[in-house]
Design goal:
- With about 190 residues, the chain is of the alpha+beta class.
- The chain has five helices and eleven strands.
- The chain is globular, with a radius of gyration of 16 Å.
Length: about 190
Amino acid sequence: MSDENKPDMIEAFEHPAARAAIGSAGGAEGWTGVLLHIHIAPSASYEMEELSEAVCVAGRGIEGDRYFAGTGTYSPRPDVREITLIEQEALDALARNDPPLQDGPITLEPIDHRRNLTVRGVPLNHLVGRRFKVGEVILRGGRLNFPCKYLENLLGMPVYLPLYNRSGLNCGIEKGGVIRPGDVIELLE
């Protein structure tokens, strides 16, 4: 892929949200999480495919993913989108209709949410401006991900409001490597 097709990204810690969080006290500490699922899509609107391992490239993303290749659906505004994460706990809450923001429970499988990594035990909302490790890969939390009407239309489910404030984290890759489901996730600072 030539650089002219590459999406215009900014370094994770250069995002205004991350800059504001860097060096500030607070956030969750003392946790250890686990990587449950890895998903990529080769292009915008394509079905996600699950991987048993993924190669993460610093400054680019996951090999084979739409954002690595520049074939994703994204705003022309530069953003942090090398790798995205979502908590399994948020998906579990949707299935319980917790909080009751829609007519009933919504089953959103890890292959459906359009994020690259599904994790458990990782407080993603506390990782903006923080460095953390997934297996051998080091990520930088850039900004919280927000749900979009595109996802709601693609899935045909009312997920916009129930996912608000728990739709995941957009990260940059500081140190690349291979990740696999079962990899431990931990804070580095």
